[in-house]
Fold this protein.
Amino acid sequence: MLSRTADTLFWLGRYVERADNAARIIDAASRLATVPVPTAARSTEWDSALAAAGAYSAFAARHGEPTRDAAIDFLAFSPANPSSIRSCLETARNNARSVRTALTAEMWEAINGAWMELKRFDGAMMDRQTLNEFLSGVKEACLRFDGSAYRTMLRNDVYYFLRLGFYLERADNTARILDVKYNVLLPHESNVGGGLDYFHWASILRSVSALTAYRWVYHDSLKPWLIADLLILNEQLPRSISSCYGNLATYLDELSQAYGRQGPSQRTARSIRTRIQNTSISEIFQRRGLHEFLTEFIADNARLGEAIAEQYLA
Amino acid sequence: MPEAFDEMTLPDGSNRPGYAFLKRWIDNTSAESLAHRRLEAELLFRRIGITFAVYGQNEAEERIIPFDIIPRVMTRTEWERLSRGLEQRVRAINLFLADLYGSAEILRAGVVPEDLIYQNPNYRPEMVGLKLPHNVYVQIAGIDLVRTGEDDFYVLEDNARTPSGVSYMLENREVMMRMFPDLFAEHRIDPVETYPDELLATLISVAPTTHAEPTVALLTPGPFNSAYYEHSFLADKLGIELVEGRDLLVVDNIVVMRTTEGLKRVDVLYRRLDDEFLDPLTFRPDSILGVPGLMNAYQAGNITLANAVGTGVADDKAVYTYMPEIIRFYLGEEAILKNVPTWRCREKDACTYVLEHLEELVVKEVAGSGGYGMLIGPRSDRAAREEFAHRIKAHPENYIAQPTLALSTCPTFVEEGIAPRHVDLRPFVLTGADKIRIVPGGLTRVALKEGSLVVNSSQGGGTKDTWVLDA
């Protein structure tokens, strides 16, 4: 396959996943915004939504302190934000268009349809119902794209590069969401007592669609370390870092088998995965600190991205 | 202007051969039903993503070419005659190019004036003395034809560089088959879907003999090119890589592409990039679309370019006027397809005549295409004619003029209902080492505006499916 095609597919996967994540983050923050806050406190759901999407400083430089409307516009529609849902879907669609030959008709229709649908929505003055409709539309489009890939693509390098982009992006997003919320909450209280904190922690799980999963896995009320355990170490949760790395390792192995050659990206993925498998949540919390662990992970994950780029995409 | 020939209905009201069933179908289908079908077709095109970009129209970056759901019909007898004419014409063009870049007999014989070739911007001295595999220069030709009567087909243009439009021929058929399966079941319509196979066979046949299993790739200028959809469509149908200049490099005069498994040799490039952009070391140094060193690899015989470099000299509008003589010179035959009588403004008497008769003539720029740079006399106003007269006087060699032809009409579904609209036809002719292949049909373009003769998609033209069938 052409290196350029592989690069385009990899980023196509990343941008579709990023759009989906942004939609979930906005969804969770909108819900959090309906929870009553003590009169003295300023509500921070939009600060953390922006931070979780990696858009806080870009936003602050333009708009200062976040308001609901400005934050939603920036995360969902702003052309100035390269990771807004609109920018992501536009880039994804352009990528899909330029490697149209590598995709199945179903995938193209999913992404092209989402892009055309996008034109119906205008960021300014969007009421809650329209916003919900928009966010569901985005999630459905990503699901349709993902499902079409799963159901219709040949299992060859085209599929593997798409999946690599997808899981690398997902691992990054999960780590960021957890890191941001952790910083917002833990300095004040180390225990989730109820009230506002409860909703904050619930919103983390909601933004990775794992609230019900949590209950099934732990049969317990919301506890910060169990939430971290689920999102970092639980292989069963499709958005956990551990599960993402299982998939990354699998698809990198498939590639090396198809091409008959191993390289730095296989080695990097294996070593990151081994470290995750050999740690426990108490070790993360007590010996290293969650924030330090996540910061290091985000850097490692970026390093894997560079290794893949160097080995295959250049 | 003379009365236009209608391809469905004769002046006495009877149907021409092949059209009886279509007339019945039109009569039995309500306007609402047709409108519904048209909408359905448009949705299909949008979803498949068939769009084209029009230069200089930012807000409408991607549009679809209007598609008319009423097919154009030709009988197999008509088609066979046409196809003999096309084959003859393309055979002569290939011999002409091999001669021009070889011993140039035709110039020495004085059949075509030397300066018309040597001063032509599309003449490439780099090609002189180069022996191409199997002597094929134009592997893919798109010959533009118009019809003015029962037996009168005229060639308007021989597109011998990078003709486009074949994806519309294929997709139009696909959409028609999805929408009207009954019509296809009842009438044995010649399939066009074999085109990708025929094209691939053609490209493989002209590979350099140095390599046993040739790798073919399609070279595109990239997603911003107006025909990008077609490039990706064809690469997909042929199962070949769609490459841009930056995907290729030349190592020791061998063209290779960058892949996820390292560098891989390319033997045949179906290039949809103009000569000037192919190699910045040979042609335009500012081209970022091309591949430095490509011409060296070409001259070393390590790669086949389809079409060859320098074919533009054969489809130039001034050289066009010599086609009947060119066919006679190389094949010893009379041209089966007619040439439109043409005044070459480079000739003094002709120029005077053209300037005196601007109102009746179509004036074209020799190097123009896409319906730009053209004056249609009978439809022009005084100011436009004066402006053209000015331009012709300044550079007579840049212009030719032709009588306004009464292009044939076909029934077309427009705002007012079914009405006749003017059409042309672009069949695609493939020349391989072994034989010439033509799929029956081609791209019919239709001028949707009443009375309009301009069929170009950039100027409000649409397309139709073209059916060749037993009458």
